[in-house]
Sequence to fold (234 residues):
Amino acid sequence: MPSLLTYSREKSELSQIRSVMRDDIAWRFEEEWDCRGLDDLDEFLKTVTKLRSEIVCYDVTNKGAISKLSETRQDFDNSQLVIISDNTVSPMEYMKPSIHPASLFMRPLDERMIRRGILEILETIDKDDGSGKFIIKTRSGNEVLRYRDISCFEARERRIFVRCGRRELHFYDTLDNLAKRLPDTFLRCHKSFIINTAKIECVNLPKNTVVLTGELDIPVSRTYKPAIKEFMAK
Fold:
């Protein structure tokens, strides 16, 4: 079941967002949503990593809320983030690549603002068709990952491990097979690694490494170094 999780110091906002989502939006998509709201930051941080919500609304006006968000954003990097703020907080504090919000709710919140913001996000999510997603079959069902959220694929222990933010999932396949199926944004850099070039932050060819978002150091082998050089030259 898809979910929306909200953290706000204002309990009335928790009710507002839940009400708009349940009564005015979810029915349009013919799908039931799990809508939760928390006014305790520590409880939110525990819940957000477990729930893996499609949409997260987060109040940045409490003391320490922005620093906590910066520290933990990778734990729910797949979620579309909506910032809840007011004129006491500078947008420069949260409009950062490391936080990458999808939308902004400025206080005072109203139903029209909430409806418009969430609908825009849902329409964006809905535009992602099967070609934009990587599906892993598990015993409990399918795990769906967006290609843009995947950092790399690694072959080890006779399995393939996919890194997505701080999450790591595994399945059975080979990198040779994957290389044939993945979009052009993915590049083989080592016998054991395929990387998402959109996640590259730094290439250090003298040290034969590529650094991906999240400070992931990936080795580059001699065989695949020409491919990395070709990518850098584009």
